[in-house]
Amino acid sequence: MQTEKVVQYIVSWLKDYLETSHQKGFVIGISGGIDSAVTSTLCAMTGYPLLNLEMPIHQEKNQADRAKRHIEWLKERFSSPIDSIEIDLTTTFDAMVLALPKTETTDKVNLALANTRSRLRMTTLYYFAGLHNYLVAGTGNKVEDFGVGFYTKYGDGGVDLSPIADLMKSEVYQIAAFLGINTDIQKAKPTDGLFGDDRSDEDQLGANYDELEWAMKAKDIGYSADEFDGRQKEVFEIYSRLNRINQHKMVPIPVCDIPDELMK
Fold first, then answer.
1. Which residue ranges does the record assign to the NAD/GMP synthase domain (predicted)?
2. What's the predicted TM-score (pTM) here?
3. What architecture (CATH level 2) is domain 3-197?
4. b or e along 183-197 (b: 16 or more beta carbons within 10 Å of the residue's beta carbon)?
């Protein structure tokens, strides 16, 4: 990858899209992870206003600390208008949990609540986007958005534009190194931070991003699970299963097209 040229291309794309949309800037949720750090930096490089939102919900302290350090780094590095707001959504989330019917805690309940956190954050992002005429910048990468569907429908998947969605996770890391993103973010274990604990993306997915990238490329060129064994076979099957069950996130919403003869 020609990293510098890719960075320039994305920044130019962001500027063009913003100007064409007649909006005034970008708003982004800062999590303390590599994807939001890279995306916010690319947005800042456009020279247009950037609003960084911290939206903790029972957040791990190390995640919040990395987010704050990244925002300070952005403000020190760029002369463009860069602002930040912390909106603690913990009380809002807890109130919603109390309002929901009481049920036995299961993996399904925990996942539903994790997705609820993501959707509360999406709602908050669009509140500020509406106030300032900003675009919500997405932080999903290619393997998450189009490989395993590792995002929340109408949560972190609810955005106006996706600057890094054509980049594999490894390529996001390359750009992070090129941009000089804080080392602690580059070294941090990837996590969506939606469960209020320290579980990583790998814990949830069953494979790390390097493995999933390999499987995505192998599947795209026509390989099947039967052509592998051992860990490769296991990873390929993990990827294939996630890709299959999460297609509902990746394809357009189905529309019931009424036959013309029924409309006369």
1. 7-249
2. 0.90
3. 3-Layer(aba) Sandwich (3.40)
4. eebeebebbbbbbbe
